[in-house]
Amino acid sequence: MSKKKQFVESITEMEEDFAQWYTDVVKQAELVDYGPVRGTMIIEPYGFAMWEHIRDELDRQIKETGHKNVSFPLFIPESLLQKEKDHVEGFAPEVAWVTHGGEEELGERICVRPTSEVLFCNYYSDKINSYRDLPKLYNQWSNVVRWEKTTRPFLRSLEFLWQEGHTAHATHEEAEAETAKMLDVYADVVENYLAIPVIKGRKTDMEKFAGANYTLTIETLMHDGQALQAGTSHLFGTGFAEAFDITYLDKEGKQQYVHQTSWGITTRLIGALIMVHGDNRGLVVPPRIAPTQAMIVPIAQHKEGVLDKAYDLRDQLASVARVDIDASDKMPGWKFNECEMKGYPVRIEIGPRDIEKNQVVIARRDNGEKEFVSLDDIETRLPELLEEIQANLFNQAYEHRATKTSIVKNMDELTTALKENPGFMKAMWCGDEACEEKIKEDTSVTSRCIPFEQEKVSDTCLCCGKEAKELVYWARAY
Amino acid sequence: MSKKKQFVESITEMEEDFAQWYTDVVKQAELVDYGPVRGTMIIEPYGFAMWEHIRDELDRQIKETGHKNVSFPLFIPESLLQKEKDHVEGFAPEVAWVTHGGEEELGERICVRPTSEVLFCNYYSDKINSYRDLPKLYNQWSNVVRWEKTTRPFLRSLEFLWQEGHTAHATHEEAEAETAKMLDVYADVVENYLAIPVIKGRKTDMEKFAGANYTLTIETLMHDGQALQAGTSHLFGTGFAEAFDITYLDKEGKQQYVHQTSWGITTRLIGALIMVHGDNRGLVVPPRIAPTQAMIVPIAQHKEGVLDKAYDLRDQLASVARVDIDASDKMPGWKFNECEMKGYPVRIEIGPRDIEKNQVVIARRDNGEKEFVSLDDIETRLPELLEEIQANLFNQAYEHRATKTSIVKNMDELTTALKENPGFMKAMWCGDEACEEKIKEDTSVTSRCIPFEQEKVSDTCLCCGKEAKELVYWARAY
User: Fold this and answer.
1) With contacts defined as CB-CB under 8 Å, which chain A residues touch B145?
2) Structural element, H or E, at residue B32
3) Of A223, A273, A196, A221, which Cα lies nearest the Cα of A15?
4) Paired residues of A405 in beta bridges
5) Strand order in the sheet with A159-169
6) Who is most buried in A247, A419, B37, B316, counting CB within 10 A?
7) What is d(CA A313, CA B227) in angstroms, rounded to the nearest whole number?
8) Kind of pairing, strands B214-221 and B227-237?
9) Under CATH, which architecture does the B292-384 domain have?
10) How far apart (Å, rounded) are the C-alpha atoms in residues B168 and B328?
11) Residue B245 — φ and ψ, nearest 5°?
12) Sheet with B359-364, edge to edge strand ranges
């Protein structure tokens, strides 16, 4: 007997095949379709509206913290990409190369930006002269291209949308503070808007950004127990400044290198919210970033007065929430399924009997509960309820992560945890890259981060058994 | 003796060399810098903030008229670009080609989108099946690449930012109405936000978009008398639908081709506003899209209480206008020059004597007038004044255009007008492309549009002298 159930169209159950469930949801909820070049994506209206809500909130916070938006070019000359050694080694293998413009073959190959450090550095080296020019706090919303071998919508695609902040500071301390501040901004947006709890920490040297001194990260856990890096913030120190000769005259008249950072989040956040909140009926969207927070479904809409009342209700609620109405000629049951697939936080049912009683029925997507609400109270109750749902989604995800987090003391325990309860594994590490490599090769588990909140869960490295240096979160990851 | 004057840095006078004046303003007002690949541009914070204000208003109107934002890929396979014959002929010569991904040479070349018709068509052919799927009203904000030989910041660049709307409709009438509606939206934004008067009309077949039935346009006139096409809206009819097999089942159960449109405006609008409103002291930004509408300049700011009062004023005005304060240690004269170069609509001066009198001095950028305003009235007066400035800028531009518009009846009059008062030339045309070609070859003058508001200024074609069909606006153009 097939485990599939009949919704708008059937989707695979997540317990059966999580990857297929994900693909089904992404397609059925009309978030994304495939572009004609392998690995590229078309973000459809519903998916893009979600991105707009995430983007607008993050953009607000980026500006509030003193940053300014700019727009840098898509194209980088090959010679410019090669200026910082570690950086080019990290990115050159996955770059798309433009070799012809119109009919003409180019003298130098041009790379489609995989990230824009070298462009900002080139600009800063020209624009920064004195301490008065610092700090430079720039951000851009753009598309980047990375020639990935295997791709999945939102999670890993040939082209994706993101924001990339690039800053230059007079001192190491300022740059460190910036790196930490932007990680906090990311954590705020991911926790309080996407309702996904994060672990804040630092990447190991093996996992850090190509060219960075260190990389800070927020790590999240998906429903299937795999981790997903949700945002990163890099401290560059003076590495790029030395390669690009970005210096300033300090107050004492001495030439100094600037200290730089960069930080980014991408459309993969949408992938994260699908895999954290979704269920076998489809998507579940946190109210604060939901394009439609409440969908009104008229019941027996052919009866006199029902549709009028439903439209009145929509107008009444327009100033307190993002409300839409499904007045199509589909059956209510079909509309309900669609509401569930799309993950609208609540569905509001209004029919002849409700109208008689001056009430509506509100059905929550997160836990399926229903409540009757008087039309006199709904303008107060709906926003309140949306906040309850927002909080509940976060708490559910938090609980789920707790259940899926194990403490492991050695490789045997790690293997057992991987089999019995895959998720985050907290374990002590000696700090040796050889151990990290071995764990990755043997189990496909990678270090996610060295969390800011350190605990001592044992004395010895889970891999080599030597004296442990620090606690690390480990997991298989997207 | 040099005609240059000493401002923040000197800029060339527009009467001396308009092109150099433009370049100077663009650089000195810190709107844009050059990217490392020829013809690409870095839009700096001030320029980008201006774009954000234009974008946000246009985006609001695009959504209000029922369109939804999406995000389509940057890359187009060569075979897909070639599907519509006229379209590929128009665009292939100026396309950037990706031939390598990472280390691997691609089996098929990939084009960096110069525009996205073929991507939307490919998607629509998959998604549109029935009349219930129509209309499709999609828009995207994106970057596109055109391999132009000669480039200038904002006006013509290898890569630029724009929005492109792509719609599909059941009937020809609906598509026509859409094409006209979006031209009206563009006209509204350009006239009421950028304060630039437009001529609405239709392009001749020679000047229309590659693949369109017809192209509607809004044409504007720059300070030097050259025209600039500020936005276009194209009716495709069923041309693309036939090439891409985009059909739907109508209510009678018959397969029909969809009727399509596309429409776009770009960052060149910023170029237009520079060349319409700017003067020899720099930029002049219309208040409604000005990132900074009022700059507060404290006078004798070292004196006790001045800076405090200036900051209080900024806070007081924050809810009625976009207000900033220049509390740097530069001299007031220097700050004044900078205000003029940047084109802030007003400058607010506040010094010890003003504070004593409970007033400020407001200096207008558009006409240099100054007025004293009581601190009790400023919250009402400032927004009022900004609207007066907005209206005045439009009126000035309107007057200027009127002065620079000639009626010409033959080629001699056209040549004289070109020499003595270059600008728009209104003249009758027989409708023959041979005349249009000849005018272009002999004088570099192109047909700008066949205006919706037709007049009969003579009986015969300005070029061949045969019977005239319609009135055309002619000009040299950017």
Assistant:
1) 74-75
2) strand B32-34
3) A223
4) A424
5) A68-69, A136-145, A159-169, A259-266, A227-237, A214-221, A199-202, A446-451, A470-475, A424-429, A405-407
6) B37
7) 50
8) antiparallel
9) 3-Layer(aba) Sandwich (3.40)
10) 54
11) 55, 55
12) B323-325, B294-298, B346-350, B359-364, B370-374
Model pLDDT for residues B221-269, shown as the tens digit of each residue:
999 999 999 999 999 999 999 999 999 999 999 999 999 999 999 999 9
Range 125-184 of B in CB contact (< 8 A) with A: 126-127, 138, 142-143, 145, 147, 158-159, 161
> Looking at beta carbons, which residues of chain A come within 8 Å of B35?
72-73, 75, 119
Cβ distance B37 to A161 less than 8 Å, yes or no, reads no
CATH for B405-475? 3.30.110.30
pLDDT of residue A107: 96
Does the pTM surpass 0.90? The reply is yes
Report the distance separating Cα B69 and Cα A161, nearest Å: 14
Report the chain B residue with the minimal C-alpha distance to residue A114: B102
Superfamily of domain B18-277: Bira Bifunctional Protein; Domain 2 (3.30.930.10)
Of B40, B48, B93, which is closest to A75 when you measure between CB atoms? B40
For chain B, which residues make up each domain, given as ranges?
18-277, 292-384, 405-475
> In angstroms, what is the C-alpha Rg of chain B?
25
pLDDT value, residue B6 = 41
pLDDT at residue A9, as a whole number = 63
User: Is the CB of A81 inside 8 Å of chain B's CB atoms?
Assistant: no
Q: Does B90 touch chain A (CB under 8 A)?
A: no
For the beta carbon of residue B196, count every other beta carbon within 10 angstroms. 28
Indicate the CATH number for domain A18-75+118-277.
3.30.930.10
Residue B408 DSSP code: -
Report yes or no: A94 at the B interface, CB cutoff 8 Å. yes
Q: Do domains A18-75+118-277 and A405-475 have the same CATH topology?
A: no
A40–B contact, CB cutoff 8 A = yes
CA atoms of B423 and A436, how far apart (whole Å): 71
Rounded CA-CA distance A440/B165 in Å is 47
- Say if CB A166 and CB A68 are below 8 A apart: no
Concatenating the DSSP letter of every residue in B256-306 gives EE-EEEEEEEETHHHHHHHHHH-BTTB----GGG-S-SEEEEESSTTSTTH
- The first and second tokens of residue A224, run together, are 């299937």
Question: Which of A251, A117, B38 has the alpha carbon at shortest distance from A125?
Answer: A117
For residue A333, the one-letter residue type is: G
Whether B119 contacts chain A with CB within 8 A:
yes
Q: Are strands B255-257 and A247-249 parallel, antiparallel or unpaired?
A: unpaired
- Please name the member of A77, A100, A123 whose beta carbon is closest to the beta carbon of B42: A123
pLDDT digits (tens, 9 = 90+) for A103-142: 899 999 999 999 999 999 999 999 999 999 999 999 999 9
Find out whether A77 and A118 touch, Cβ atoms under 8 Å: no
Around A407, how many Cα atoms within 13 Å sit in the side-chain half-sphere?
7
Report the residue from A71, A99, A102 with minimal CB separation from B94.
A102
Token code pair at residue B238: 């069923």
A209's tokens: 């950004």
Could you tell me the sign of the dihedral formed by the alpha carbons of A365, A31, A404, A385, in that order? negative
Distance CA A71, CA B47 (A): 9
Nearest to B88 by CA among B197, B210, B183, B205: B210
Residues 6+ apart with CB under 8 A from A105: A99
Which residues, numbered 59 to 78 in chain A, qualify as contacts with chain B under a Cβ-Cβ cut-off of 8 Å? 68-77
Say whether pLDDT at B74 is over 80: yes
- Spatial CB neighbours of B47, under 8 Å, sequence gap ≥ 6: B30, B31, B32, B270
